[in-house]
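Fold this complex.
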Amino acid sequence: MPDNQRPQRFIDRLESAVRRRRTPVLVGIDPHLELLPPNVGAGDVENRWMLPREKLAEAVRVFCAGVLDVVASLVPAVKFQLAFFEQLGPEGMRVLLELVARARREGLLVILDGKRCDIGSTAAAYAQGMLGPPSVSPWGGDAITVSPYLGEDSLQPFVETAVARQAGIFVLVKTSNPGGGMFQDLVADGMPIYRHVARWVEHQAVTTKGQYGYGDVGGVVGATYREQLVELREAMPHTWFLVPGFGAQGATPRDVAAAFDAAGLGAIVNNSRGILFAYRRREFERFGPARWQEAVEAATRDMIEQLRAETPAGRLVGSL
Amino acid sequence: MPDNQRPQRFIDRLESAVRRRRTPVLVGIDPHLELLPPNVGAGDVENRWMLPREKLAEAVRVFCAGVLDVVASLVPAVKFQLAFFEQLGPEGMRVLLELVARARREGLLVILDGKRCDIGSTAAAYAQGMLGPPSVSPWGGDAITVSPYLGEDSLQPFVETAVARQAGIFVLVKTSNPGGGMFQDLVADGMPIYRHVARWVEHQAVTTKGQYGYGDVGGVVGATYREQLVELREAMPHTWFLVPGFGAQGATPRDVAAAFDAAGLGAIVNNSRGILFAYRRREFERFGPARWQEAVEAATRDMIEQLRAETPAGRLVGSL
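Structure:
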């Protein structure tokens, strides 16, 4: 399909990419320094933190570029975890920028996972810095994650900038971590806080709806709480989910299955450590640390197959 | 007092700095591009966004360095709003780094306002990147702001890193923006969500208590909701408050007064636009855009005087 016939709205580009690759797998680029394989230039794990930041940043660049090269033909999108780049100072941020450009060149949609939030004009500054192609935004994200604690007027600038730049946002609704319920599960006016957030997100999804029924405003809903995932899928029919929690965090394909609609759409499922550091998993130890890139490919294919076999993602059809 | 006798714990260094300067004024470094004066190299406001990012970043550097040079001898601390630096890409981040180093050299405590939040190991990466002196952290913050939506296990790594590095965190409790109540004010188990967050923060403040009774874990409590500020001051006796909302956002010295304890301690009061862009305020228009730096000084002195005259901060004594 020629470029000018591709849907331009973020959510339509996302759905189109998921259909083309016939998988909702989202590869999370979380370069934990202590998990990097030894042959990318970061030396032994014991001495790693003694290395100059430039050297560590270069190792992260080599590793992540290697991951992108493998997954670009397999999955629709990647998600960069900004913390691991910020951690390396300005050198890390430069590497992030280079990797975002590479991912875009390779045809991947890019989600920047920064969970940003702030009031009014500051939220606008974050949104303008992060959303949109590199011609208008230095960081070049097709979408970003945002946190809702500051309320509607802090979220609105993200929504507006996203729509204006054909980009998207994923608002934290119900997170995958063990302590996520501490505030999210408190019940007010007869429903948990995450449902209050969900209601606002679903409303925004409806008002930013693309041609396939989902909106540019999506939600982060963890797969580690299956019951709530079922409840939220039901309550948020226009909201595309970004689903963390698969793999290292313990969620199974059966847990994740609840995130999809009947056609296998409506969700992308993140896997970070389970793919990036697959060379450390028993199933893929045959590759060994030196062949970590083959382990990345095997783990990605394995997750794609698992979701095809055990979730509605198996019903995805390649055409638009 | 020689350096080796200075208290080392963050909260003690903060209290000591507030006493030495005899003011709790915190200058917020929020370089809104559209508000920069014309003589810092960013040209006319109409054509500003056409300039290359390097040029804009350099203008931000010149402007913020000028602000730091003026306020360093007047106030105990500055707060950098990360969004306005991120917005300019890697160039902006390099400028941020240079300004943080300058502020530290000039004896100011540095708060990095990024409102970060994430789960477990990712939260640790943020904390390790941002907290502590430049010898251990690329970004060099004495303290950072964090958002609580993800719950306890997302906050704990920030607390641990802060304590280990003699740094601090300020957790969003009750924010100053008009829509802040949307989720924060929902009532669960008989109290609003912000009180649930407050309870956790106060508990952490107690466990990280320094020699003067406040803890390394502080809270962000806006001055625009006076009633809640009074309530939270009462409920959180060991929690130092970072108070936004003064000036441009509408809070008066009388509103802010409720943030302090009887000795004038327990809070720092942020002012960003009202100080940085004082040349645009009627009271300081005599300086004109070219003499913006004098307007910064006049506005800082004016705020210091207002808080001395109308709040318990007037009781601050210079000695430790």
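Chain A touches chain B through 58 residues (CB under 8 Å).
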